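[job 0412] stage=complex_fold ligand=pyridoxal-5'-phosphate status=START
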Amino acid sequence: MKRMYLDYAATTPTHPEVLKAMLPYFDESFGNPSSIHSYGQEAKDAVERARSKVASLIGAKSEEIVFTGSGTEADNLALKGVALALQRKGNHIITSSIEHHAVLETCKFLQKQGFSVTILPVDGYGMVDPADVKKAITKKTILVSIMHANNECGTIEPLAEIGTITGEAEVYFHSDSVQTVGHIPINMNKSNVDLLSISAHKLYGPKGVGALFIRKGTRISPFMHGGSQERGRRASTENVPGIVGFGKAAEIAQQEMAEEADKLTSLRDQLIEGILTGIEYTQLNGHPVMRLPNNINVSINYVEGESVLLNLDLEGICASTGSACTSEDLEPSHVLVAMGLPHLQAHSSLRFTLGKWTTENDIYRVLDVLPGIVAKLRAMSPLMKTAN
Ligand code: PLP
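[job 0412] stage=complex_fold status=DONE, emitting structure tokens
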């Protein structure tokens, strides 16, 4: 059976051009960028070319890009790095209840170290209110961390408005943009964001490589100690093939992003419309308009999301019920709960995320198969019996 991948928010396939660009850096150009001989210089040049491509994708300067081992590491570096550097100035951090665990768990860790953390609520669409950010800022606030778009419900947050507030308050602003870079336009030249996390494997690059944009002049301490790579901000020999692949992925994204977003928005809306009109007792989770072009998150009431997922998998359709990182967790998604969904509705959620190779036929196939699966599961569901 041909499998269909509709889980692009969990990870994307590596683009064939990316893989091709990476391969020489495993064998003939294997040098360590810190070596001064020709092998080393070849590797160093490749890393710097990749850096300028990643910088160009987000309207940054090359020297503002620090390569990391992942999006998680970029988030850790931003939060711990600013906390360490500014601890004498203040100890207060503001974030939101729908952040990725890479941010929320780092905040918990910092709390244990004596920092105080305000976790802002979101509305029913998963949107942070900039007025709440303004109210939460105190003289002790050193950092606001609000994601650009949520990985589960797809809602795009009002970064420009929040940036105006942090700018006026002279507080650093970090944004986890792992789900947006390479998918929707981001221009650090016109933004008040000081620190921005990126992950290569969400934009058709390899896994295990990410970056943190650090605006020139931002005070930040490294949390890994060792060599002086990445201008002393991230010790460790660079993952040269991974970084080269990341650069190639950024280059492709810059060329193809606008067209891809248009195509995906249309496929997304077709799938949302098909599910909401074709299956009873369904609702869209997340914002209807301020939404990632590739994200469909629905609650299919009176069935368990996991059961639908397994049945879809048997039909060769690979989707998700929330974030892949927590799929072994039986707790309902913290994002959907923060949006006010009752636990039962949160448990009945299903996420399809589309990508470069998704076709209209894929959407037709989901719409063909899903109603039958839901009807079969509902026929066995005690919850459905009480509803009728
Ligand atoms: N932040 C968000 C919003 C994500 O979706 C993810 C991955 O799912 C991460 C951070 C972590 O990125 P990585 O897998 O590169 O550690």
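The chain has a mean pLDDT of 96.
[job 0412] exit 0
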